[in-house]
């Protein structure tokens, strides 16, 4: 299926884009993440959480959504 | 006072009853920086009855690009006290308490207990996790905001049985993994937007109006004006772990304890000594460079990866722009068992001025050093 992926903060700096669409046929969020890592190797060193259809999910969650977001923590104030 | 708050009172959703709630509210703001300034300014203007401000830091010239409560006359002053001074002029009918000290595991619980709502405007993960945990333990709603370059995040934690910050990000990133504003820069207006959103959440909670951002994280991008609101679920185990740490909470001050024990030294003493290594922990773009001394450059953001530059045979004396990051560097080095380290009291501008060599002489540059103690570091 075609999945729209949004990148925030430091993550978008690695991917050099704020969003993109990927064709992917896996089952779990973790599988999608492996696929993203294969495209952007240095993302492995970054901290972030994943949202699916605008809800934070764990890696074991089944991939059901059309929209995924990779969300890093910010410390600045 | 009716006239001052008239535009609130004539709103049917607020009225005199709502304004009374605002004047009875007690709000504690952690950090009087980029986020803290607009938060404090709007909460003061709104007439929050009791405001507390925690900040140990001093106003530097590079703060003025975004920290709108301060002017050049505040340079070198403690931020909590300078903010209070400015806010008193905005509204003298409320009670404002400044806490010009570092928030620690030791003092957080007692402090939080005196307030109804906690607002996080801090600028580092250690404080953010401390603020979250102390809010969970004292059962206070926490209005959260954080920024990165052109993006911001806003949420309300520990509210009405909702999630906490740890339900979103369970553990702090490793030190140095996520740069802060001083290392990477920030659009000046961004904390103004995010801080104002935080002030809005505070007022909504007090007034019981609308839907506070509980269980939701609002992500805002100033460059494309997109905002997205993500749902966060409560993690009972994360909250329970924090609650279980309640009894030992005040003893978790490892980092702060180290900071208190940091040895300092004046540049006047440094230049009389031999067998020393002078280390500049400022980022590479920062000026003035102190070229009159033999300086090793080890920016704080990458300090841990450059430990091989340390000479174990020598006494290490460390400086930065104002003497704050140099202390941090000493505490980090201690963690790596690098001892015999001292933080230089003066900042780079003073060190530069006082060690600048005359063109024709090697030692004459040091002749002014006796006047050093009287020079105020205002950067």
Automatic annotation (TrEMBL), chain A:
<dbReference type="Pfam" id="PF02597">
    <property type="entry name" value="ThiS"/>
</dbReference>
<dbReference type="InterPro" id="IPR016155">
    <property type="entry name" value="Mopterin_synth/thiamin_S_b"/>
</dbReference>
<protein>
    <submittedName>
        <fullName>MoaD/ThiS family protein</fullName>
    </submittedName>
</protein>
<dbReference type="InterPro" id="IPR003749">
    <property type="entry name" value="ThiS/MoaD-like"/>
</dbReference>
<dbReference type="InterPro" id="IPR012675">
    <property type="entry name" value="Beta-grasp_dom_sf"/>
</dbReference>
Automatic annotation (TrEMBL), chain B:
<dbReference type="InterPro" id="IPR035985">
    <property type="entry name" value="Ubiquitin-activating_enz"/>
</dbReference>
<keyword id="KW-0808">Transferase</keyword>
<keyword id="KW-0547">Nucleotide-binding</keyword>
<dbReference type="GO" id="GO:0005829">
    <property type="term" value="C:cytosol"/>
</dbReference>
<dbReference type="InterPro" id="IPR000594">
    <property type="entry name" value="ThiF_NAD_FAD-bd"/>
</dbReference>
<comment type="similarity">
    <text>Belongs to the HesA/MoeB/ThiF family.</text>
</comment>
<dbReference type="InterPro" id="IPR045886">
    <property type="entry name" value="ThiF/MoeB/HesA"/>
</dbReference>
<dbReference type="InterPro" id="IPR001763">
    <property type="entry name" value="Rhodanese-like_dom"/>
</dbReference>
<dbReference type="GO" id="GO:0005524">
    <property type="term" value="F:ATP binding"/>
</dbReference>
<dbReference type="GO" id="GO:0008641">
    <property type="term" value="F:ubiquitin-like modifier activating enzyme activity"/>
</dbReference>
<comment type="subunit">
    <text>Homodimer. Forms a stable heterotetrameric complex of 2 MoeB and 2 MoaD during adenylation of MoaD.</text>
</comment>
<dbReference type="GO" id="GO:0008146">
    <property type="term" value="F:sulfotransferase activity"/>
</dbReference>
<dbReference type="Pfam" id="PF00899">
    <property type="entry name" value="ThiF"/>
</dbReference>
<keyword id="KW-0548">Nucleotidyltransferase</keyword>
<dbReference type="GO" id="GO:0061605">
    <property type="term" value="F:molybdopterin-synthase adenylyltransferase activity"/>
</dbReference>
<dbReference type="Pfam" id="PF00581">
    <property type="entry name" value="Rhodanese"/>
</dbReference>
<keyword id="KW-0067">ATP-binding</keyword>
<comment type="function">
    <text>Catalyzes the adenylation by ATP of the carboxyl group of the C-terminal glycine of sulfur carrier protein MoaD.</text>
</comment>
<protein>
    <recommendedName>
        <fullName>Molybdopterin-synthase adenylyltransferase</fullName>
        <ecNumber>2.7.7.80</ecNumber>
    </recommendedName>
</protein>
<dbReference type="GO" id="GO:0004792">
    <property type="term" value="F:thiosulfate-cyanide sulfurtransferase activity"/>
</dbReference>
<dbReference type="InterPro" id="IPR036873">
    <property type="entry name" value="Rhodanese-like_dom_sf"/>
</dbReference>
<feature type="domain" description="Rhodanese">
    <location>
        <begin position="272"/>
        <end position="356"/>
    </location>
</feature>
